[in-house]
Amino acid sequence: MAENYHIPVLLNESIEGLNIADNGIYIDATFGGGGHSRAIVSKLKTGHLFGFDQDSDAKANTIDSENFTFVYHNFAYVKNFMQYYNIPAVDGILADLGVSSHHFDDAQRGFSFRFDAPLDMRMDRSVKKSAYNIINEYDEQELTKIFKMYGEIANARRLAQEIISNRTGAPIKTTDELKKIGQKFCNPQTESKYLSQIFQALRIEVNNEMQALQEFLQGGLSVLRPGGRFVVITYHSLEDRMVKNFFKTGNIEGDVDQDFFGNVKAPFTAVSKKVIVPSNEEIQRNNRARSAKLRIVEKNG
Question: Which of 220, 226, 227 is nearest to 79 (CA)?
C-alpha cells in the first residue's frame, strides 16, 4: 500500500537537510505513506524515529523496525508524546504538510472535486465535524471567512450566499453538488484553480490545520535540541507564511523580539538561505510537487 499511498516530495533534499546521525532521535511529523520515514530509518543504527499520523489508513504503512515507533496522533502533540516516551530532546524534525496522493485519489474521502463523493475531508475520521457540517451549518459570515482566509477567494461572500441559497430546500451532500455551485463563479480557464481553492478552504477548516500547525511548530521548537534541524515542506501561501515567520522569529505573526541592545533574538539559523523547490524533473515525475517549498533551519543554542 505504501508504494501507491504517496510519492515523497523533495525526498533527497529534506533527508540531507536533517543531517542525520545514526544514533540520533528524529520525528517524522507527517508519516503518511512512510516514504520520508523509510529513508530516515535506513540511516539509523542505534537511533530512533517517531512517525506521527492521525489518519488510520497510514497505520497500514508502519515500518517493521526496532528503530521506529508509529504515533497515531495529530502532530500538534509532538511535545506531549516526547514527554510520554521520556525523550528530553530530539535531533531533527521533518514535516511534509501536503495532503497525500492517497487522500486525493480515494474518492470516498471527499478531498477532491474529481470524484462525486460524500462531503467529508476528515483526516481523523473519529472527529465528528466534516465538510458536510460546514457547508450546511455555517452561516454566511462564517463561510465567507473561511473561503477568504483559507482559500483566498476574492468573491467569497457571493459564493457563501449561493451555498446558503442552495441548501435551503435540501442539504448539500456531495462534492459534485458543491462543484456545480462553484462552477457558477468562474470561467473554464480558471475552474480547476477556483475549485481547488474552495476545497482547500474546507479541508483546512475541517481539520483545524492552521491551529494544529501553530501548535506543532511551537511544540517542535521546545523538543528540538540546540543544533537540531527543523525541516518543513509547505504547499500553499498560508502555511508557508506561518512557517517562514516562525523560523525567523519564533512566532507565526513574524513579530521580531529584540533584547535590551536591539539585537534580534532568533530561535533558528537558516541552513539554506533560499527556499528550496523541486526540480523540473521531479515535477514531471510528480505534478503534485509543483507548489512545494522546503525550508531548513537549525536551532540556536
Answer: 220
